[in-house]
Amino acid sequence: MHILIADDHELLRDVLRSYLEAEGSFTVVTVPDLPQALAAIAAGPAFDLVLLDYAMPGMNGFAGLEAAIAASAGRPVALMSGLAPAGVPDKVLACGAAGYLPKTLPARSVVNAIRFMAAGEIYVPLDLARPPAPADGEPALSRRECEVLAGLCAGHANKEIARDLGLREPTIKLHVKLICRKLGARNRTHAAMIARERSLC
What is the extent of the structural domain holding 69? Predict the structure, then answer.
């Protein structure tokens, strides 16, 4: 697997690269900021996964993530961070990223998460994927979740919703799972029924 790691901490870059390359199935390129990450993406060959640090130079919040996703032309891009503000994992997924990787994860978990995302799946640690309890009793659905919910209400399959929203099908599956959890629904059909009852779609 061909991986790009962009982080402004040289020690972290070197440790992560060494650990991945010791696995024997990774080739790793490292850069210290977003401009060099975008240059590496443009230069090719295509990366199986681009991993960006949330707070490195050039990121400008989620604008840098969105720029890298656009430059990667459908290839997985993920965000990693040591201390990110609350709600970042949900926003990362709403941008269409492959996942969110806390720097506090054990090394083995990091490798597994990178393999998972490079294979086209979505990764967010379970404890971070739990939605916050809404203050007003209504489900705190993100903009993207509302778009996916509209697809569910229209009876569309995940593949159709993914095509309509320009996302990958695994991303839609994760959104459906989070929607069901937030609405207290047993499955996608039940979620659509609840949404209609509450005039959410």
Answer: 2-129
